[in-house]
Write a structure and sequence with these properties.
The chain has about 375 residues and is mainly alpha-helical. The protein has helices spanning about 1-10, 10-15, 20-25, 35-70, 85-90, 100-110, 110-125, 130-155, 160, 180-195, 205-225, 230-255, 260-295, 300-335, 355-365, 370-375. The relative contact order is 0.12. Keywords: DNA-binding, Endoplasmic reticulum, Homeobox, Lipid biosynthesis, Lipid metabolism, Membrane, Nucleus, Transferase, Transmembrane, Transmembrane helix.
Length: about 375
């Protein structure tokens, strides 16, 4: 039964071009090595654990001292007065409506303004500190920067970077280079570590979206390695890592309260996102995978799947760039990419508390504008 399922999942008719079998890839010529998925997975899983441990050390020994130098303090949030009734409601509804406030006021013999204040302070308790978000962004910034430099050093001397038709010549019988292997293992280990750390990192509004994103990324890395589509795969990963460097840098500037630097970096991020994901990716990489591969090797079943996923990804790029462009325009003409930090820290003064509980919660949500969410680390872009 197990062998049947394995044969069905790794069907040669689906994953490989016509007249090519897995056995052909398992018997390379002397001095040549083809990708073997089991070898990469055996190294990627232990390395993912190592990445998690290294991240803990990095945040403690590098990122946190940098935060102190920039005077980004952890800052313990104000604690609320313990109340079992309010805490029970808070677990199911962090923003009670007017009817609930009236009921709680009668039950506890508290003024509605006092109850609103309790929920406001309680929400602040669950908000991550700026220092924690700074450390997370600094880790991602460091990884993206290092892996991008490594990729460029490898791809710069690779003929398929300058002539994408080289991605398909003699496919899938293309030798595996140490640079390709290291790049793939590092990227796969990193995304496996993100899968785990997502449950302990700052909780974000796009938690499920990013969970699906990480799973899809792991799936694409795995299948592209398994059927030896490494040349196109390395180009795709390199293009995606490039703009993320500037996004994380803009977040770091935002947390450090360097407003002008933050605005400038976000504009650079917007430009780099446009060039890499709306110009280079579709007109260079997707074009090669879609048309040049058709001309050289012809379509096969997995070819349709991979191209379909790349086109879906390009659609997401267009949607994301529309949102990013709106933020960049505000940064250029209004200079306030991150003026409002109230999405992270809510004031608990009486003057800031509305007499209407429902309106208060709606106001809090409206404060959390798109540009603030991006730079305060509540959303990701990959």
């Amino acid at each position: 039964m197990t062998s049947f399922i394995s044969a069905w999942i790794w069907s040669e008719r689906f994953w490989l071009p016509e007249n090519v079998s897995w056995a052909d890839l398992e018997r390379p010529p002397a001095g040549v090595e083809y990708p073997r998925l089991q070898h990469m997975l055996c190294h990627a899983f232990p390395l993912a654990v190592g990445v998690l441990l290294f991240r803990l050390l990095f945040e403690r020994l590098v990122a946190r001292p940098c935060a102190h130098i920039l005077q980004i303090q952890a800052g313990a949030p104000r604690r609320v007065q313990p109340n079992a009734v309010l805490e029970r409601l808070y677990q199911s509804n962090t923003c009670p409506d007017t009817r609930q406030l009236e009921g709680l006021s009668k039950q506890l013999d508290w003024e509605e303004r006092k109850i609103q204040r309790w929920f406001r302070i309680r929400r602040n308790q669950d908000r991550p500190t700026t220092q924690k978000k700074f450390c997370e962004s600094m880790w991602r910034f460091t990884f993206y920067l290092v892996i991008f430099i490594y990729a460029i050093c490898h791809l710069w001397v690779s003929p398929w970077m300058w002539d994408t038709r080289q991605c398909w010549h003699n496919y899938p019988f293309q030798p595996l280079s140490p640079g390709q292997y290291n790049y793939y293992v590092a990227e796969l280990a990193f995304y496996w570590s993100l899968m785990v750390s997502q449950f302990t990192d700052v909780k974000r509004k796009d938690f499920m979206i990013m969970l699906v994103h990480h799973l899809a990324t792991i799936f694409l890395i795995t299948i592209s390695y398994g059927n030896n589509m490494l040349r196109a795969g390395t180009l795709v990963m390199c293009v995606h890592d490039a703009s993320d460097i500037f996004l994380e840098a803009a977040k770091l500037a935002n947390y450090a309260k360097y407003q002008r630097l933050c605005d400038s970096l976000f504009v650079v991020f917007s430009i780099s996102f446009f060039l890499t994901r709306l110009v280079i990716f579709p007109f260079w990489i997707v074009y090669s995978v879609l048309f040049e591969s058709w001309q050289i090797i012809g379509p096969y079943q997995a070819w349709w799947l991979i191209n379909g996923l790349l086109l879906v990804l390009q659609t997401l790029h267009i949607i994301w760039f529309y949102l990013i462009a709106r933020i960049a325009v505000k940064a250029i003409f209004k200079g306030k990419v991150s003026k409002d930090d109230r999405s992270d820290i809510e004031s608990s003064t009486d003057e800031d508390i509305s007499s209407n509980g429902s309106k208060n919660c709606q106001t809090s949500k409206l404060r959390d504008s798109n540009h603030t969410r991006v730079l305060n680390g509540e959303t990701h872009d990959h």
